[in-house]
Amino acid sequence: MTDNIVLRGDQVLLVKRSQRLIEGGKWALVGGFVERDETLLEGAAREILEETGYRVDDLTLLRIIDRPDRLGEDRQNISFVHFCTAVEKVGLADDESDEQRWFQLSDLPAASELAFDHFESLELFRAYRREPFGLPLYGRPGR
């Protein structure tokens, strides 16, 4: 699985998950499952394009999450969290989200409004922007 922090300057693109999905109605990072016969980066770029209509560049691995107790998950998913730059809008969003919106990194929705552990990943990314550290991180921050 790939979760992606899609950036445009000091803004991050979040999607509001469709009500029919787990954690429906909450804001989330753009992401999904890697398909058979595609690389992790190909899967990340495809998921971003499908869910938002944006092409991206500079996909960089921020962290790997393999906790069996991930918040909001109904099964164990290993997530590769990337950050990247939105290059151009070339399509429409699919039906997995009801809305997409650019948020200032300094003015994100509350943790309770974000799906899964996405708030934790966004906080980690904001810390990285303030003072870069070695990437990628494995597991929980601070461990």
Any guess at the CATH architecture?
Alpha-Beta Complex
Report the order of strands and helices: EEEEHEEEHE
- Gyration radius from CA atoms, angstroms: 14 Å
Runs in which pLDDT lies below 50 for 5 or more consecutive residues are none
Q: What is the CATH T-level topology?
A: Nucleoside Triphosphate Pyrophosphohydrolase
Strand content: 35-45%
Given the structure, what is the number of helices? 2
Estimate the global geometry from the Cα principal axes: globular
In short:
This protein has 143 residues and is α+β, with helices and mostly antiparallel strands.
List the helices and strands and how they pair.
Layout: E1 2-8, E2 11-17, E3 27-28, E4 30-32, H1 40-52, E5 54-65, E6 79-89, E7 97-104, H2 118-130, E8 137-138
Parallel strand pairs: 1-6, 5-8
Antiparallel strand pairs: 1-2, 1-4, 2-3, 2-7, 5-6
Protein architecture, described:
The longest helix has 13 residues, at 40-52. The chain is built from 2 helices and 8 strands; from the N terminus they run ββββαβββαβ. The protein has one domain (2-133): Nucleoside Triphosphate Pyrophosphohydrolase (Alpha-Beta Complex), CATH 3.90.79. The model has no long low-confidence stretch (mean pLDDT 91). By secondary structure, it is an alpha+beta fold. Strands 1, 2, 3, 4, 5, 6, 7 and 8 form an 8-stranded mixed beta sheet that branches.
